[in-house]
Amino acid sequence: MRRAHGDRGAGRDRRLIARAGESHKAHPGDGRKFLLHLTQAGRDRLAEERRRRADWLGAAIDTVLDADERRTLEAALPLLSRLSAHLHGT
Length: 90
What we know:
With 90 residues, the protein is mainly alpha-helical.
């Protein structure tokens, strides 16, 4: 599952770089990754993209889940954070 999400994310990231005109180069230790230099315009665009995704997810949570389910999801966030950190090696 991680690979599928990562693949879609990589494509989105490449499109974002192309639109923002930012520079990037291959990561020296892992050719699947790249190093990115963001200008202020690029940072602003990235912040806006993250805000839109957060709004989209928040709206879905509010629409689909009832109050008890939202509390359950909130209680699970520390567990999800631990899992994410493990999967990303942080």
